[in-house]
Every structure is written in C-alpha cells, then in structure tokens.
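WARN retry 2 of 3 for item q-0093 after timeout on previous attempt; input resubmitted unchanged.
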Amino acid sequence: MHRPYAIKTALAALAVAAVMAGEARANEICQAEFQPLIAAHQEVMKQTQAAIPRGRPTSFEQAKANAQRACAALTTAQASFRRLQQWMTTNADFCRLPEQIMNDVNTGVANITRNRTQACNGVAQLERQRRQAEAGGGNPFAPNAGRRPQLDLRTPGAL
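OK item q-0093 returned
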C-alpha cells in the first residue's frame, strides 16, 4: 500500500516538473520572439514621432507636404502596430500575455488608424481648399485669416 502512493507521488512530481519546464521553455520562446518585435515597433514609433510635422504651415504646399509626410509615417506606424497585434493575438494563450497589454495594443491600433485616416484625408482636404482659394475664396494660411484647418497628428505613445 505504501508503494503505489510513492509511485503516484513520484509521477505527480514528474508531471509538475514537466509543466514547469514547459512553462519556462514557453517563456524563453515568447521572450525570444517578442523582444525583437517590440524593439522594432518602438523604433518605428520613434521615427513616426520625429516625422510628424511641427509648427503651423504658411502655405498650401507646406500644409500638403506636412500632411503627406504625416500620412506616410502613420501608415508605417499602423503596419507596425498591426504586426504587434497579430503576434500578440496568435501567442496570447501560449505566452500568457496579460489582458491589459492586449487592450493597450488594440487601443494603439485604433488611435493610430484614426490619426492616419485624418492625416491622409487631410491631403485631399487641403487640395480642395487650395482650389477654393485660387477661385477667390482667400488663403486660410494668410496672417490673420482666422481659424486655419488643423490636423490632429498626435500619435499614441510607443509601447
């Protein structure tokens, strides 16, 4: 009677050790894949922040160039967020990712998509305003011209 209990205990201990070794291995795999991905994402976000135009444009051409530059930078940032989101969705269970991290990435995707859409649509909007100004509608970039069209080009912080 003493012997079966010892065998069961030994088997249980082996099972626990195997699970713990499997979790440790899973953690190593997750870290090895996630670290380069997040490092690349942070670099893209740093470049995006640097590429976003600052200051007020003084002409349609400058405003359009700023919007085009912002659109391109935010398109790259959106792709980076989506790669991160895809990896995290695929590996959430295996890597035991906290729900908050998933929520942060999903919020980042939503924010960057909204900002990208705004910047990219701004290019077309500025072109319409340029044509209106040429047709006699006045230059909204002239000094004291009142409220000028502004794009919200702020990007969410890098994860």
